Amino acid sequence: MIGVAASLVLASSAGAEVKVDRVPCPGQGQCVRLANGTVEVLVATEIGPRIVRYGFAGGDNLLGWVPESTVKTELGEWKAWGGHRLWSAPEHMPRSYSPDNDPVDVQVSGRSVTLTQAVEPKTGIEKILTVTLAETGTGVIVGHRLVNRNLWDIEVSPWALTIMNTGGTIILPQEPYASHDDALQPVRAMTLWAYTDLSDPRWQIGPKFLRLRTDASRAGSQKVGIANRQGWAAYHRNGQLFVKRYDWQESATYPDFGVNTEAYTAGAFVELETLGALVSLAPGGAATHEERWSLFRDVEQPATDDALQQVLAPHLQAAR
After folding, report:
1. Any residues with CB less than 8 A from the CB of 140 and at least 6 apart, and which?
2. What gap in Å lies between CA 260 and CA 211, rounded to an integer?
3. How far apart are CA 79 and CA 277, in angstroms?
4. If you average pLDDT over every residue of the chain, what do you get?
5. What is the arithmetic mean of pLDDT over 150-170?
């Protein structure tokens, strides 16, 4: 059931206007669009749950669209489609690749749209994505919820994966620098995969930032995971800066050797991922994870870390 009218305009208390309506999706059925005059967000209704567009009104889509990418599993054919999706970590074949190719339930409440996928028949997991657009500006809150519909306990982490539009650079923060005299203990876990090659020229590793850029001519996969206490990750493309903010829980356990942020690229494909805490869910229990998105125009990406820090600082402050 889709609980949204063909066109609905909602006036905010601040006098701004958030419009909710139905529009064609990029290559796949109908979308619900949230627009406030500055940015627009499109969520799919016939697949998902998926966010398939986030960008300035009339501008480029910061999210990527790769419908040709498919994975055949014993659960069926999983399609990457594109945009932002919700998975459960740790990654496992075939559990992680349960297809999301069917319509979702869509409910609209004020400036929020909630997308609910039918319970996955083989995993017993229900996936719910809630998208809330700010009355003004570029802010979007994305809520992720995994519900255990099995008759037994499961251990999961909500895993938020965003396929980005190609041609940009992922920017991850390093932990604040301290000298050996002042800091004898390690400050962060970093996870590498068997195919990670830190000598690959797509990486730029500095004292303040870890960068991973896309390169369509290099098909090999690169991936890194970090325990990110700084609470943000970013993607820079064509002068636009996409920022995710999310919380680190100091006492929590995280998947993949204790990381909550992951970056991946292969050829033109690029994905910026965050993870919630790894928790045990009793039947009917739910695990949640929230991302807070912001988007900025006319942002440079200097080569040096010191210069990049100066550029990013006001935008990261504004994205809080």
Report:
1. 39, 41, 54, 131, 132, 133, 134, 292, 293, 294
2. 17
3. 26
4. 94
5. 98
User: What's the token pair of residue 303?
Assistant: 């080569």
Helix (H, G, I), strand (E, B) or coil at 137: coil
Q: Which two tokens stand for residue 63?
A: 């999210």
Q: What is the pLDDT of residues 23-52, one digit of tens each?
A: 999 877 899 999 999 999 999 999 999 999
Total domains present in the chain: 1
Structural domain including 35 reads 2-318
Output phi, psi for 151, to 5 deg.
-100, 10
318 by DSSP, 3-state: which? helix
Give CA separation, 220 vs 74, 155, 194, 197, 264, in Å. 26, 31, 12, 10, 11
First to last CA, the chain: 35
Residue 274: predicted pLDDT: 98
The enclosing domain of 191 has a CATH number of: 2.70.98.10
Q: 10 or 19: whose pLDDT is higher?
A: 19
